[in-house]
Amino acid sequence: MTAQKLCEKITYIPASSDPLSAEVFLLDTPCGLWAYDLGASFEAAEYLNSLSEFRAAVSHFHRDHAGNLSRVHPAELYGGGYFIKRAGRGIAVSGEMYIDGVRLFSVPSVHAKGSLGLEYGGLAFLGDSLYPGHRGYDIGILKSTINCLKSLSAERLVLSHEAPRLRNRGEEISRLEKIFSRRIKGENFIPAE
Ligand SMILES: [Zn+2]
Fold first, then answer.
1. Does position 72 have pLDDT exceeding 90, yes or no?
2. What's this model's pTM, rounded to 2 decimal places?
């Protein structure tokens, strides 16, 4: 398997549907290699294990993003509090953390509790954090997600399961604000479109 190019110094192992595996993004930074998500396929695990050393940040504790946790051995592992508790190892990020120019931050998400984002090189990696949950969008959490997007400095967003194609931060804020505007008084959730 070869990693595909996303942009300068950033590549990715594509997503797959059998097994369901999210993209594994690889960031070649001046201070070493980072993986954002681990995927769930043997191919992704094999690729990661062929690297001499890497740090990993995992977006959330869903199998398609973290399934390879037991197969790979990053030098350092970061995740949200819920992920680290379930993983039983690694460093929990609450709020934000800077490691050698890479910014890790909590993303309030209706899709997955305790999601973790990563900002580097003008891009923000957000995993599945902008997607709805089973019951649609929790209004309070959606508002926090929108505020989180507004606080980013990266103008381009990378979402999982999206080919990947870069999204414009302003357009994504408008899209979520439009969903937020559909809220009905007295109801806690907005149905997904
Ligand atoms: Zn996913």
1. yes
2. 0.96
